[in-house]
Design brief:
mainly alpha
């Protein structure tokens, strides 16, 4: 959460070889969750077939895969993106204040959330045979290099670009970034807290 995942999701979802651009809020407990993913993507009028890669961003521990080892197949591309704690926590608190959400606006809660999420991602990564680690700042500071490496990792016939389209949920509450930046269709460099 608050890792620039909406930006990355829109870049991915704008590639013709990828279907999906948002958090689907699916609990990946068993194989039926894959069907839920296809249904949600189809309901958003996105292409679902055997040619495109299906995308979901998983931001919260409650939606993580029960069996991480099931992801160790050549068909699954795992992307792990992390933003520095200061920037992430400030963004969570700012979002909480903006949306009148006392829990998210609490710096202690936001700090604990970040710590718990990083710990869970670290445990999961130890079980993965293959994943792409992305520093959130790299997508804005070194977009061409970062997207080129990611395109190669995902074996995309058409490389990712720093320009992207809008989708039905772009900028909407509960669908990721609600700032004006996400609606611009290009990477916007924002200042990180140090």
């Amino acid at each position: 959460m608050r890792s620039r995942s909406s930006l990355l999701s829109h870049i991915l979802g704008s590639n013709p070889n990828i279907s999906g651009y948002s958090e689907l809020s699916i609990k990946y407990r068993d194989r039926l969750a894959g069907l839920d993913q296809k249904i949600k993507l189809h309901q958003d009028e996105l292409l679902v077939n055997s040619v495109v890669k299906l995308f979901d961003k998983i931001l919260h521990n409650s939606f993580d895969f029960q069996n991480v080892s099931s992801l160790n197949t050549p068909e699954v591309d795992i992307l792990i993106m992390l933003r520095p704690p200061e920037s992430t926590i400030k963004s969570i608190v700012t979002m909480g204040e903006k949306n009148d959400n006392a829990k998210y606006a609490d710096i202690s809660w936001a700090s604990g959330y970040y710590k718990d999420r990083v710990e869970k991602i670290t445990r999961m990564a130890k079980e993965l045979e293959r994943f792409f680690f992305l520093k959130s700042d790299d997508i804005v500071n070194f977009p061409e290099e970062t997207l080129s490496k990611l395109s190669k990792f995902m074996d995309l016939p058409i490389p990712l670009t720093s320009e992207y389209g809008s989708f039905s949920q772009t900028g909407m509450k509960k669908s990721g970034d609600t700032s004006e930046n996400i609606k611009l269709g290009k990477i916007v460099k924002t200042v990180s807290v140090r």
